[in-house]
C-alpha cells in the first residue's frame, strides 16, 4: 500500500502520554490531526497546547470506545489512523477491565474504518513489546508473541499477575487486528501496521500537573529518580518522541498492503508490518548512571551486563521505516529538565 505524505490523521486517545507526542509529530510534519478524547474536559489542555496549529487540529469526543460504532463518525474523511487508546495500568482485578477496551477499541475502530473509512489508507496500531516478549534464547524480534501471558490469564483469571493481565490485553488486541485484516482484506482500501515499543520514557506534554497524575511508564521513571526503590530491575525502553516519530514514519512509508496473520506468527520472508521500536535493555541504575552528576546516582557501577535485560532486535524499524534512536543520556537529561521545569525535582547543587 502506498504511503501517505499529507492529509488528515485520526489519533485515538489523543490526551495520553504517547498520543500527545504523536499529535505533535504529525502536526509538525504538516499533517492535520483529528484527536479523540473521552470527554470535552480531557480535550481542554490539547486545545490550548495545539492552538498555534489553528484548524489543523480538531477534537472529537468518543465517550466509550467499546460501544458498537463508537468511531463511525471519527473515521470519516481521514487518510490514516493511529490507534493508541488503550488502558495501561497494573491495577486491574478483572483481566477484562484491560482486555475489554483494548480488544473492543481496536476491533471497533477497524470496523468503523471498514464501513465508513473510504478515504483511509493506513491504520497504525500502538501495540507493545509486551505483545512480543517470550522466554526464548536470543534477541526478540517481530515474529515472537507473548503467548505465556495469555495462557496465564486463561488459567488464573483474576488471580493472574497484574503485568500478565496488561500483556494479555495487548496480545489479544493486536492479534485481533491481524485476524480482522485476514477476514476483511478484500473489503477495505487500507492496510495495517503495528508498532511494538517497550516501556516508553521521556518528557511529558499531555495534561499533567503533579507527578501522581503521570501515566504508568513516566511515573516509573519519576520514581527511579525520587524514591529509593530497587535499581537493579528494568526491562527494555523506548523514547517517547521516537515513538511519536515511528507513528509518523509508519504512515509515510510504502509497506506491503496485506500481511496475513500466519506471516506474523512465523518467519515467512521479512514482509511483516510489525515493528519493534526502541528495545534497548536497561536497569533503572542505567538510567541513574545516564543522568548528570547533580541528580540521584544510586549505586554507580553496580550493574554488569549479565544483570541487564537483553536488547530487542529493532533492525526492521531502522531498515524499513528509517528509524534512528535517541540515546539514553539524551532521554534522561530531557526528562529531568522537564521535571525541573515543573518544580518536581531539584538538582543537588541547586537544593544545597
Ligand atoms: P496513557 O494512560 O497516557 O494514555 C492512554 C490513552 O488511552 C488515554 O487517552 C486514555 O484515555 C485512553 N484509554 C485508556 N483506557 C481507556 C478506556 N477504557 N476507554 C477509552 N479510552 C481509554 O498511556 P500511554 O500513552 O502510555 O499508552 C498509549 C498506548 O501506548 C497504549 O495503547 C499502550 O498500551 C501503548 N504502550 C505504552 C507504553 C508505555 O510504556 N507507556 C509501552 C508500549 C505501548 P483517558 O485519559 O480518558 O483514560
TrEMBL record:
Keyword Protein biosynthesis in record: no
Domain NAD-dependent epimerase/dehydratase: 9-204
Keyword Oxidoreductase on entry: yes
Gene3D superfamilies, per database record: NAD(P)-binding Rossmann-like Domain (3.40.50.720)
InterPro entries: Epimerase_deHydtase (IPR001509), NAD(P)-bd_dom_sf (IPR036291), NAD(P)_dehydrat-like (IPR050425)
Alphabetized UniProt keyword annotations: Oxidoreductase
GO molecular function, a single term: oxidoreductase activity, acting on the CH-OH group of donors, NAD or NADP as acceptor
Entry similarity comment: Belongs to the NAD(P)-dependent epimerase/dehydratase family. Dihydroflavonol-4-reductase subfamily.
Protein's name in the database: D-lactaldehyde dehydrogenase
Amino acid at each position: 500500500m502506498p504511503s501517505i505524505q499529507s492529509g488528515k490523521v485520526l489519533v485515538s486517545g489523543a490526551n495520553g502520554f504517547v498520543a500527545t507526542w504523536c499529535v505533535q509529530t504529525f502536526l509538525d510534519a504538516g499533517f492535520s490531526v483529528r484527536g479523540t478524547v473521552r470527554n470535552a474536559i480531557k480535550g481542554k489542555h490539547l486545545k490550548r497546547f495545539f492552538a498555534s496549529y489553528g484548524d489543523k487540529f480538531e477534537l472529537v469526543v468518543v465517550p466509550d470506545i467499546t460501544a458498537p460504532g463508537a468511531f463511525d463518525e471519527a473515521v470519516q474523511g481521514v487518510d490514516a489512523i493511529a490507534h493508541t487508546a488503550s488502558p495501561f495500568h497494573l491495577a486491574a482485578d478483572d483481566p477484562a477491565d484491560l482486555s475489554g477496551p483494548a480488544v473492543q477499541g481496536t476491533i471497533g475502530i477497524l470496523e468503523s474504518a471498514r464501513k465508513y473509512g473510504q478515504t483511509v489508507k493506513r491504520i497504525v496500531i500502538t501495540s507493545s513489546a509486551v505483545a512480543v516478549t517470550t522466554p526464548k534464547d536470543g534477541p526478540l524480534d517481530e515474529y515472537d508473541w507473548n503467548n505465556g501471558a495469555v495462557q496465564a490469564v486463561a488459567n488464573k483469571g483474576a488471580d493472574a499477575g497484574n503485568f500478565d493481565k496488561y500483556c494479555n490485553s495487548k496480545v489479544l488486541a493486536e492479534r485481533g487486528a491481524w485476524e480482522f485484516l485476514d477476514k476483511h482484506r478484500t473489503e477495505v482500501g487500507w492496510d495495517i501496521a503495528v508498532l511494538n515499543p517497550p516501556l516508553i520514557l521521556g518528557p511529558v506534554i499531555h495534561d499533567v500537573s503533579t507527578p501522581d497524575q503521570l501515566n504508568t511508564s513516566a511515573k516509573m521513571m519519576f520514581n527511579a529518580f525520587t524514591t529509593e526503590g530497587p535499581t537493579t530491575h528494568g526491562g527494555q525502553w523506548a523514547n517517547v518522541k521516537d515513538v511519536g516519530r515511528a507513528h509518523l514514519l509508519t504512515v509515510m512509508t510504502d509497506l506491503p498492503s496485506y500481511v496475513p496473520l500466519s506471516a506474523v506468527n512465523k518467519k515467512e520472508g521479512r514482509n511483516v508490518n510489525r515493528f519493534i521500536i526502541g528495545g534497548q535493555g536497561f536497569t533503572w541504575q542505567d538510567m541513574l548512571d545516564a543522568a548528570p552528576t547533580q541528580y540521584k546516582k544510586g549505586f554507580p557501577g553496580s550493574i554488569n551486563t549479565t544483570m541487564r535485560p537483553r536488547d530487542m532486535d529493532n533492525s526492521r524499524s531502522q531498515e524499513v521505516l528509517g528509524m534512528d534512536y535517541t540515546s539514553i543520556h539524551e532521554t534522561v537529561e530531557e526528562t529531568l529538565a522537564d521535571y525541573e521545569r515543573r518544580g518536581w525535582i531539584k538538582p543537588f547543587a541547586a537544593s544545597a
